[in-house]
Amino acid sequence: MKLRLLTLALAAVTIMSAQVKLPPYSKKTLPNGATLILLNKPDVPLVTVRALFRGGAEAESATQAGINSLTVELMRRGAGTRSAADFAEALDALGATLQTGSNRQVSFAGIEFLERTQNEALGLFSDFLARPQFPEDEFAKALAQRIDASKAAKDNPGAALGSYFPAFFYGSGHPYARPANGDELTLANLSRQSLVDWHKRMFVGRNLILIAAGAINEKTLTPQLERLAASLPAGEAYQWKQKVAPPAQKQPRLLLIDKPDSTQTYFMIATPGIDRTHPDRTQLEIVNTLFGGRFTSMLNDELRVNSGLTYGARSSVDEDRLPGAIAISTYTPTETTVKAIDLAVEVLNRLRTQGIDAEQLLSARNYIKGGFPTSNLETADQVASILGELEVFGLNKGEIDDYFSRLDAATLAEVNATAKKWFGAAPLQFLLVGNAEKIKEDVKKYAPNMKIHSIKDPGFSVPAF
Amino acid sequence: MHLHPSAVQTGCYSERMLRLGLALLLTALGAAASGMKVTTHTLENGMRILVHEDHDVPNAAMYLFYTVGSRNERPGITGISHYFEHMMFNGAKKYGPKQFDVVMEKAGGRNNAYTSRDITAYTNWFPNSAIEQMFDLEADRIRDLAFDPKIIESERGVVSSERRMAVDNSPFGTLYEQVNATAYTAHPYSWPVIGWASDIAAYSMEDLKAHFRMGYAPNNCILVMTGAVTHEQVVALAKKYLEPIPRQAPPPPVRTVEPPQLGERRIVIKRPAQLPLLLVSYHVPATKHADNAALEMLETVLSSGRSSRLHRRLVEQDQLVLSINAGQQLALDPTQFIFSMQVRSGVEPAKAEAALYEELAKIAKDGITETELAKAKNQQIAGFYRSLKTIAGKANLLGQYEIYHGDHRKLFTAVEELEKVTAADIQRVAAQYFGENNRTVGTLIPESRRPEAAR
């Protein structure tokens, strides 16, 4: 029976190995330096237009963390001749949505609208990008909301874990050392004027990547988007920071965030990783799939399926402009904290010492390929997101179009060498959120260099080690 | 990464909007123009099959909906439908423990599942090359599920962990569960879908086997396939793999009817939290009821988008809450229309509560404008298209419509029902359902220390 199954799976490989490719799109540079990309994908009568501005979290100073996401939030609270309320009314009346935010590389805003409302929707988007008013009362209101939201995040221990991680892992001074939306401490440093200045400096043509995808008519849309982009000054292009890696720790460290009411311990175990364009990325994606990237992964199999210690255990590999983390994350009842951490470390060591075998490699390749079309190329907004990513990281479309052949080219020996090189090669860094009183003695063994920090202390900063 | 078996649906309100939006789209375009061609087939054992072809990507979605959920449980075995959802991944006769996932992932597929009060749904996504493999896997576990005592124990730990995450370590989860248990005094909707912790700890082998016999009859299942497949291919595979599975007695009808509520009910939860929470819940009819369309429209007017009445008043104007959500879940039996609010720091929850009642009373007294009605319709048309972007979204929609309206074709006749919704209807349902005697109010008050008894 086993043999027959294997044959089946192998037969499947040849059928589904056909590379799915990016649909055709056009790209040009506009007079003010903006990049314009258009893609016709008329599955449903919706159009998505997304504006990316280079900079993102790495451009923020440590004391101004969160300025990107607060600036894009304010841009909709009064723009052109409309007040915040009128802008919201006009947007909803079209059935359109406007989503804003920021990540480590960019600030972004995406509007999605019914094709027949194109003129009205682009009018709103243009006001939003180029003519925000930054009213003082809306600034005060949005800031207060953000600060409360940052506090409320601590009611969700899983989210809190992720917010403490940057400061713990990267350490002060690193551009990634703070939570994406800032926290109550850094937000309090922002003023209306600081946002106005930020908008003027960062939201300029030379930083802009404008992408339209969906049910579009390239002929009519192109001049509209050109006018929209032209309403921004050329400005000065953001200069990316020098490549800097996470600090190389000489020994393990453990930070325990004390949440006395928690009945579970939420934890991450991390080690330095790669950036988005690193040559090891495809092999690391294969290794991570097998280690903690899917349901049957080594981590989930041991911690959930075999032992029932958790609802889920996973691992991730950051792929940002600067090298990031490779991290295990999961949670377990307070009483089984040590058992779960021991097991996670054991699985990591097993990957390092035993590696993966040919059957696993085949399975991982198939798994990645099988999910690739629906998670990347099925909808217009997925494709728009990929095109933006290629632009931001300076990658060419071979990143997508040749992906399957890169997966196929990775040999077992190479993949195992890569696993050994990255997974747990450096001293492990442990971050825990849980009931310190109950677990602090037991978790000391992972890192003599251990610190305890109360979740009640404001913000997501951490003590120095 | 999706980790099946997935979240229990507690306060999930999203489905509703997709459903209403669908009807409105059809208003706009006409059924034929929607491009949603659906073919059907019923197997001899009673399993119903819906197929929608879409060759945009070389992938397919296979959704199996069993009409069994926590409403089919009783005290002592609460949460067993959800627990069983987990057990369906733990091995059968041909494919032993772990093999469902191992074989599927190796063939390029992934899966998840969810349990609600009314249904248990199994969701598979895979390259179309794996289609026959999927039928073989599904048939094996429907026909010959294994009940290994050791695995049953290990899965208890997983489900308990899920409960601790979703309820015990979540202020919202804790409050929602208690409000729900207070709003219902008799009907099975009173217990949480994930079950009470003591029941999760106590299911017996016999409980599990009885539940499997009750819920997993092929005649209690709807199979929906969307994506790069053909009707002929799906029917041929269904005949080969699923048709031989014998028909069984379906779950017995749920007889208990929740008696009318005769006065407001209030509860308070005290536990550590950063900010207070407020839930206000009203009894409303089941999804099939004639008032459902008007209630859906009312919900959009109240809480969809930043210009909606409640967001404008409570979040922006008075700044009493950080966020407000409103809505009703799809339901086979009469359900709840729930308002949930994260109250701002330093604000008395009673103030937010009073502002909510004022807004609801305004609609009951003065109704809504034609502009608001038109806006709500546009929001829902766009929402509908968003739900149609993926083959997974389409599979879910078709199955839900088939179950909650009894026939997916009611999508097409529902259009006229929706077109009939007027501003006056919305005013009428607001007045009829949002009354003081019909509501249950729950407040979560942050406390620095949790009482020992609650640990």
Characterise the protein shown here.
The complex is a heterodimer of chains A (465) and B (455). In chain A, 45% of the residues lie in helices and 18% in strands. Chain A is of the alpha+beta class and 465 residues long. Chain A folds into two domains: 205 residues, Metalloenzyme, LuxS/M16 peptidase-like (Cytochrome Bc1 Complex, Chain A, domain 1, 2-Layer Sandwich), CATH 3.30.830.10; 202 residues, 2-Layer Sandwich (Cytochrome Bc1 Complex, Chain A, domain 1). In chain A, helix 10 crosses helix 13. Chain B is an alpha+beta fold and 455 residues long. Helix content of chain B is 43%, strand content 17%. The longest helix of chain B is centred in the middle third of the chain and has 20 residues. In chain B, 55% of the residues are buried. The N terminus and C terminus of chain B are likely disordered. Chains A and B meet through helix 1, helix 3, strand 5, helix 5 and helix 11 of A and helix 3, strand 5, helix 5, helix 11 and helix 13 of B.
